[in-house]
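Weekly modeling sync, notes
Attendees: S.R. (lead), two postdocs, one rotation student

Agenda item 3: backlog of single-chain predictions. S.R. asked that every request posted to the team notebook include the full sequence so nobody has to chase files. The rotation student volunteered to paste the first one in as an example of the format we agreed on. Action items at the bottom.

Example entry:
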Amino acid sequence: MRIDFTQRENALAQALEARLGSYVDLTVGNPTAVVLPTGSGQLPASPGYDPQPRGLLEAREAVGLVHGVDAERVVLTASTSEAYSWLFKLLCDPGDEVLVPQPCYPLFEYLTALESVRAVPYSLRYDREWHLDASLLKITDRTRAVLIVSPGNPTGSFLKRGEYAELARLCGSRGIALISDEVFAEFPSAADARRVHTVAMLDEVPAFALSGLSKIAGLPQFKLGWIVASGPGWRESLAQLELIADTYLSVSTPVQLAAPALLAARQVFQRALKTRLTNNRALLSAARPRDASWDVLPSEGGWSAILRVPQARSEEDLALELLDAGVLVHPGYFFDFPSGAHLVISLLVSPSDLARGLAVLRSVL
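Predicted structure, as returned to the notebook:
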């Protein structure tokens, strides 16, 4: 089998299932689970079904405006996960390798395995800021792509221009593609001229920018993602992607018809969320005593915060103690941190829930 379907629940999942009382959930990543406006309105009626493999032109034009590119560079998908699977089909043969960052959201191991592709991790370097160090990439003759998450989840780190230049130098001559997951790109915590906001407008190396309604408009239930192609050979890549897309035709017509209005209204959600993120980061900073044995790592963006905690006990034991006290957090090992002990919490939750959860965190830590 391509993946192990017999995996057992970890101790935190077992404790959560057995828990009877209420708790503050500081792991929320679903914007529909919190009270924020989206400006989504009503979906339009679908007059008929005339499938276009790359997606309806008006929807692709709306996506192009987000990334500053022409609609011809855009292919619509039902999600970014599906976008990954299509790109692995495009770029890889069974047994080929894709380089994936660590720490990162635990998704790529499964997405690659389901396409018979091998995920090879590379560690992000940390020096009060997370960096992509091209010298840490383990490139072989089976390497077909380097995955970038910008900003990272949970690190919040954006790809920098200098890092991109090194990647382009290293990968361009070998024909290795860049896949850039940019779902959190519209949520920076501050401005920084060093950042690459999107690879969609860069031409030095074959590159694919991924995003979707889930994060930029707070609408994961509408199931619309996309791929934007750039760099050498992007027309040929899109011609092949069109064949893959035509094989599946997964994107529903109603959401494509609604896409221009939904994307135009995304600022309603983004303004509300950015205010919440700013307030929650301030709450988190104020909750840490000066003499605390734990620290909050700086973040450039995204919806998560990383707490670096003492290594006197395991992350799982600490997460279980916090759950017993009424607060759910993610232990760092979920995200494959290369060293140290960490907890990851969501900044998507309401300030009142965060304040309640932080009171417990502060007491336990």
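Discussion: group reviewed the output briefly. The first helix runs from residue 11 to 18.
Action items: rotation student to repeat for the remaining queue; S.R. to check formatting next week.
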